[in-house]
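Why should sequence recovery work at all? Because a backbone constrains its sequence more than one might expect. Tight turns favour small or flexible residues, buried strands favour hydrophobic ones, and helices have their own preferences. The token representation captures these environments compactly. In the example below, the structure is given first.
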């Protein structure tokens, strides 16, 4: 009677949790929002405003609404996101073993030592497939170029970019240039459903070595060029354009991919448009007016990023409300989750993005039950199968292994987790444990026949109940 009672209790607990959890994705009432309590009010919605450096604005907008091109989890290890890696061996081609690598190797692909200056030049590879801004616009490499040049104009954002500028710290001299578009220098195959046009490679030329290259220089906040340049708009083709002329004419910051107007030299595409330039593209009234940027007061709808949440409302002196970005990229095609575009990213982000409590509790119950069952069955197996004369020694060895070796494994798990990420190592550890269990079940028949081999041996000195010692 105990087993049905236990199962019934588990069902009741899980049912209660399921009823208290948020509605399933795609179902009625799927609107979810996050209300963030902060110690002080936001200073501005304008991320390029000169006064945008308060903790509240940075916490809400930088870390929630906007997003970076790489991911840095709490373990501090830089992980690929839009930026997949760099040309580590210098052969000009992005290969599978360079995924997640963000620095040049000291030896090139031909075995030659890398000269002292070659470490200052590297090619980075970006894949914008699945990266959408909150207004539905597809992000591309020209948004990346805009982001770099806009950050170079900001004293708050350009700390890690100064190694890309000339000695005079001129933002227009930024050493960031386009190498290839459409992924022509990628050895990695294009996943099903992905668009080669969303792949690109970019060259970075540093003026000096920089220890925080991957954490700061390569880790830029991605800003939507179509929102900031000219008079701004919401959406860009092929996505619907839902609003235009959202601010004063700010001009153009980077040269576009196609020639127009007085702009004919497309080798400049992606580079910054200098002050006083005469080769302006069509519809660009002037180079970027950084003096006007700080005067723009965006509305809630104008705050458009590519982060996991979109800004819904900032009620001054009260609260900030953000809602989930349903097309946020987590390694799968946002419009067709069956298409996996970045398997390693799926593994990295699946657990942190778990939204429902019930599955997590159910898994915890399963793990706890499995642990208790394992301990009980192991003790029973050893005590019923070991010869009596060896029983004490067998149990001593088991206790040594179980209680003595496990902490060493936990130490190794923590050490490897600090390098590769604790989520990755927990997944690897679980996979190894499952593999060992399956191997033992298949290759060791005795484990499946414990009930047939279980026996009770009467000890020579054992007495029946009530038997006299005499």
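From this structural description, the recovered sequence reads:
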């Amino acid at each position: 009677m105990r087993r049905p009672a236990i199962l019934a209790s588990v069902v009741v607990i899980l049912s209660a949790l399921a009823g208290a959890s948020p509605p399933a994705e795609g179902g009625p009432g799927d609107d979810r929002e996050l209300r963030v309590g902060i110690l002080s009010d936001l200073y501005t919605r304008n991320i390029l405003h000169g006064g945008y450096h308060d903790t509240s604005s940075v916490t809400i907008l930088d870390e929630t609404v906007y997003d970076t091109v790489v991911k840095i989890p709490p373990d501090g290890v830089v992980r690929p996101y839009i930026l997949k890696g760099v040309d580590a061996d210098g052969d000009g081609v992005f290969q599978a073993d360079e995924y997640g690598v963000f620095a040049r190797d000291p030896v090139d692909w031909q075995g030659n030592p890398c000269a002292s200056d070659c470490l200052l030049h590297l090619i980075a590879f970006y894949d914008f497939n699945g990266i959408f801004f909150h207004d539905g616009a597809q992000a591309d490499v020209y948004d990346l170029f805009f982001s770099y040049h806009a950050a170079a104009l900001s004293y708050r954002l350009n700390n890690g970019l100064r190694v890309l500028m000339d000695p005079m710290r001129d933002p227009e001299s930024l050493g960031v240039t386009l190498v290839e578009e459409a992924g022509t220098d990628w050895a990695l195959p294009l996943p099903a459903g992905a668009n080669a046009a969303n792949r690109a490679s970019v060259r970075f030329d540093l003026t000096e070595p920089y220890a925080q290259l991957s954490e700061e220089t390569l880790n830029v906040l991605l800003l939507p060029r179509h929102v900031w340049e000219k008079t701004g708009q919401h959406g860009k083709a092929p996505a619907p354009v839902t609003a235009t002329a959202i601010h004063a004419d700010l001009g153009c910051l980077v040269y576009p991919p196609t020639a127009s107007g007085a702009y004919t030299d497309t080798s400049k595409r992606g580079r910054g448009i200098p002050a006083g330039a005469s080769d302006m593209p069509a519809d660009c009234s002037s180079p970027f007016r950084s003096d006007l940027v700080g005067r723009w007061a965006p509305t809630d709808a104008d705050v458009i990023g590519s982060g996991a949440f979109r800004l819904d409302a900032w009620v001054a002196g009260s609260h900030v409300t953000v809602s989930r970005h349903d097309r946020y990229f987590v390694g799968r095609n946002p419009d067709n989750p069956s298409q996996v575009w970045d398997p390693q990213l799926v593994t990295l982000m699946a657990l942190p993005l778990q939204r429902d409590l019930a599955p997590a509790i159910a898994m915890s119950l399963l793990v706890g039950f499995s642990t208790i069952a394992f301990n009980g069955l192991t003790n029973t197996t050893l005590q019923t199968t070991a010869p009596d004369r060896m029983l004490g020694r067998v149990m001593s060895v088991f206790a040594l292994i179980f209680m003595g070796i496990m902490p060493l494994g936990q130490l190794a798990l923590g050490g490897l987790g600090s390098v590769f990420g604790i989520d990755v190592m927990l997944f690897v550890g679980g996979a190894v444990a499952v593999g060992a269990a399956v191997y033992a079940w298949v290759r060791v028949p005795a484990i499946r026949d414990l009930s047939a081999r279980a026996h009770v041996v009467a000890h020579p000195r054992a007495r029946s109940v009530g038997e006299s010692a005499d």
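A few observations help interpret the result. The longest helix spans residues 391-420.
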